[in-house]
Amino acid sequence: MLDPLALVVIAAGLLYLFYHFISRKYQFFAERGIPFVKPTFPFGNNAPVLLKREDLLKNVQKLYQSFPNAKIMGLYDFIKPIMLIRDPDAIKQIGVKDFDHFQDHMPMFIPADCEDAGTDSLFGNSLFALRGQKWRDMRATLSPAFTGSKMRHMFELVLDCARASAEYFREEAKAGRTTEYEMKDVFSRFGTDVIGSVAFGIKVDSLREQNNDFYVKGKEMLNFQNLKTLFKVIMLRVCPSLTTRLKVDITSAEMNAYFKSMIMDNMKQREIHGIVRNDMINILIQVQKGALQHQKDDQDAKDAGFATVEESSVGKTLHNRIWSENELVAQCFLFFLAGFDTVSTCLTFLCYELLVNPDVQQTLYQEIMAVEDSLNGKSLSYEVLQRMRYLDMVISESLRRWPPVPFVDRYCVKDYVYDDGQGTRVSIQKGQIVWFPIAALHHDSKYFPEPMKFDPERFSEQNRNTINPGTYLPFGVGPRNCIGSRFALMEVKAIVYHLLKNFTLELSAKSKVPLQLKKSYLAMVPEGGMWLEFKPRNS
């Protein structure tokens, strides 16, 4: 048995080796002559957020502003070196033109050296996490489901949820109950109802049935403020290879089984009874049969809204790959995640801006009433909604001011050299991760004067052509952008239309102005919630 002195010497030696290893890691950018923000062990440049000194949005902006003249700079995600791409032209070059070098997200559930780890994880099999050719095939398989023509088919399902939500609030006000609500909760419930109807083929009313099984399980599954979930996410980012081997998953096996059985049972019942419904389940059935095809839609580029991203050629080249049940279910899971969290986040901050900018709210209401008058009692249609210019301007500006995803990443799959021909030449090796700082670009006064001001006129017909596409990225960039941008915007527009038609958004006793963000590592959440009052308008 070793004596205490020997143990101390061994421990000191191991600590020295570990310190030397980390020190070498933190020399990555210095050795390459790339400006970088000094890291703090062991958090890298995440310390202000993890230690709850800064919110996520402010942290991204602060890092971006560290080297205002650099096109590419360095930072550390724990001990992992990250290249932050600051220049809009560099973002377009890396994210679009040279996409073949940067086609993947950072490996989490699937090791970097393969496209399929055989995982049963729903998140690991989702379009977001897939890699290489398998991602290309899945993107091409799903992209026909998100065209303008498919949105028209799904619109009535979304509109039903929007009308039902507005009717619930009117009933509550008429009964003399509270008209004060927390927006993240409201829109998480609305998003749950939409996804339940459109993606899972079930009818849910999460406002009237506050503790329905679908909503409760979804909320539990996507509780990223939970310390256990936070720890798993951090581990997946810090050591993805180890967590893959240990089969670590963000969601539990029970949750995965719950959602999988719900979808597969629904698909089987439709097959047995010949039920056809314009939703995601029907699309998955078409995928299984190989019947989902791309159809040219001339309206796609015209009716989607300014923030919509277009599908690239990657998403239009179909492959005859046979998908497993788990792989198909995983896409509904991703749809649920986007609807529950991303869309509800967007709507929460949009309502805040309408609350504190009553002139914008009034102008938008006037547009809504002009549309109502033109309908002559008919139901709102997809085409009419998409022609509402001011509504689109307001949503576009809200996505600029409060992008639901502050940054996106790309993973270099083969060695690359960025050379702008003006003196910036940076080698990016296979395995290197780059970040596009969406929130920081959206708040850079070079691209958006008075960036803290909420000004929908930035996106008017006269002004939108002056916006550099590389500076406005609410749904990402390049072939790996958000496949559901059309659907998300349709959902947001539908509920905003019906809420403002029926209510004015007013300050309540719990409203916090100006809004402060919670110091969260994973999400943009208002501190203390975002409360307001729905004051019914005259019928």
Structural summary, described in words:
The chain is an alpha+beta fold. It is built from 20 helices and nine strands. The protein has helices at residues 4-25, 28-32, 47-50, 56-64, 88-97, 132-142, 148-174, 183-198, 213-221, 227-238, 240-245, 253-273, 280-289, 300-303, 325-356, 358-375, 382-386, 389-401, 438-442, 485-502, and strands at residues 72-77, 80-85, 180-182, 408-411, 416-419, 425-428, 433-436, 503-506, 531-536. The protein has a four-stranded mixed β-sheet. A three-stranded antiparallel β-sheet has the order 3-9-8. Helix 7 packs parallel to helix 20 (485-502), helix 12 (253-273) crosses helix 15 and helix 15 (325-356) packs across helix 16 (358-375). 43% of the residues are buried. The model has no long low-confidence stretch (mean pLDDT 88).
